[in-house]
Amino acid sequence: MVIGVTVLTSIDETVLNLECGVPGSVGEQVLRLAKNAQRAGLDGIVCSAADLSALQGELKPGFLFVTPGIKGTTTPAGEDQRRVLSPGGAVAAGSSVLVIGRAITGAPDRPAAAREVLRDIASVL
Fold first, then answer.
1. How far apart are CA 76 and CA 105, in angstroms?
2. Measured at the alpha carbon of residue 6, what is the angle toward residues 100 and 16, in degrees to the nearest 5?
3. Residue 55 burial by Cβ neighbours in a 10 Å radius (0-12, 13-18, 19+)
4. What class, spelled out in words, does domain 3-122 have in CATH?
């Protein structure tokens, strides 16, 4: 599978507009890049789960959404992350694959943090 990256989860609208020089909202840019990825024949995209509402009904069924920037229910995703959701929130929003790093690796009790992530996902299934 080939997956394209849209807008990093560490980028918010201020960074997108002022530092990157890209006008418009993050959601508009993610949608534009997602449509380009689909037209190019890619299998999916990497985007924030917070962006998935902007993509609803815009892409073909089965298009994959790989979503980093996942925070634990009691642990953060990382201070550099701006557009994050909990694991359950990401699944409920339509994420296909979750990328979970610091929410587990940065927790004082990693096994407990991993179980917390699984419970949060199970709560929305």
1. 11
2. 105
3. buried
4. alpha beta
Average pLDDT of every residue of the chain: 90
Tens digit of each residue's pLDDT (9 = 90 or more) over 43-80: 999 999 989 988 988 999 999 999 988 877 776 556 66
Residue 94 has pLDDT above 80, yes or no: yes
State residue 77's pLDDT score.
59
The C-alpha angle with vertex 96 and arms to 33 and 48, in degrees rounded to 5, equals 45
Q: What angle do CA 29, 1, 42 make, to 5 degrees?
A: 35
3-class SS at 84?
coil
Residue 124 has which token pair?
A: 């929305």
Distance from C-alpha of 94 to C-alpha of 104, rounded to nearest angstrom: 21
Query: Would you list the domain boundaries of the chain?
Result: 3-122
How is residue 98 annotated by DSSP? Answer: E
106, 75 contact by CB (below 8 A)? yes
- C-alpha 55/C-alpha 40 separation (Å) is 17
Instruction: Tell me the pTM.
Output: 0.86
